[in-house]
Amino acid sequence: MEPSDTDQSSLQQPPYWSANYQGSLASRRNYSEEIADEENCSVWVTHLPAHCDSATLCHALRGTGKIYSMFINPPTSQHCTSAAKIVFWNRQGADKLMRLVVSRQFRVGYNQPRVTPHRIKVSAQVPSRRSRVIEISGPIEIVNRDFLSIAQGQQGSGGLDAHSPYMRRQ
């Protein structure tokens, strides 16, 4: 039987919760897993551009590895830049990003972010072809950003972060 989202019996509670934390203290996903540092797929990225969004960050991360989740914290009165927690699908993605940082090749806009392992450790996900990327094909009158944005807005969930139009011959 798998533990529920609120079952915390096998998880380490972080030594402190930030006063700025707005997540659920009851959710087991917000607790560090008991894994070795070398297995941690979660990183903390600071010194991002103030107006950094998911599309900008994903573009900068292209080629590092499959991303499981990402959350961007906007600037605050104490910090003039954004920060983000990124969880890669596996450790190889985190390692590749760290190599780019060490070689000073990782940039987001004009900023050279700092990357450290996140204190809330997350293990690798089960290998899968799952993705949040979808491919939609059809007549250009319907399959275009404006039409899809309107249609998506009527559904009330999700979002269109980016689109890459291309022609494919059948």
Written account of the structure:
With 170 residues, the protein is of the alpha+beta class. Among the domains are: 38-117, Alpha-Beta Plaits (2-Layer Sandwich); 134-170, no CATH class. It contains three helices and four strands, in the order E-H-E-E-H-E-H. The chain has a four-stranded antiparallel sheet with strand order 2-3-1-4. A hairpin with an 8-residue loop joins strand 2 (67-73) and strand 3. The longest helix has 12 residues, at 91-102. It is globular, with a radius of gyration of 18 Å. The termini are far apart.
* CATH level 1 class label of the domain at 38-117: Alpha Beta
In round numbers, the mean pLDDT is 79
The fraction of residues in strands falls at 5-15%
The helicity comes to 10-25%
If you consult CATH, what is the topology of the domain at 38-117?
Alpha-Beta Plaits
Number of helical segments?
Answer: 3
**CATH homologous superfamily name of the domain at 38-117?**
RRM (RNA recognition motif) domain
Going across the major beta sheet, what is the strand order? 2-3-1-4
Secondary-structure element order, as H and E? EHEEHEH
Backbone CA Rg: 18 Å
What is the quaternary state of this protein?
A: single chain
Query: Stretches where pLDDT falls below 50 for ≥5 residues?
Result: 6-11
How many strands, which pairing sense, and closed or not: the largest β-sheet? 4 strands, antiparallel
Structural class: alpha+beta
Shape: globular
Distance between the termini: 47 Å
Supply the CATH architecture of the domain at 38-117: 2-Layer Sandwich
What is the number of E strands?
Answer: 4
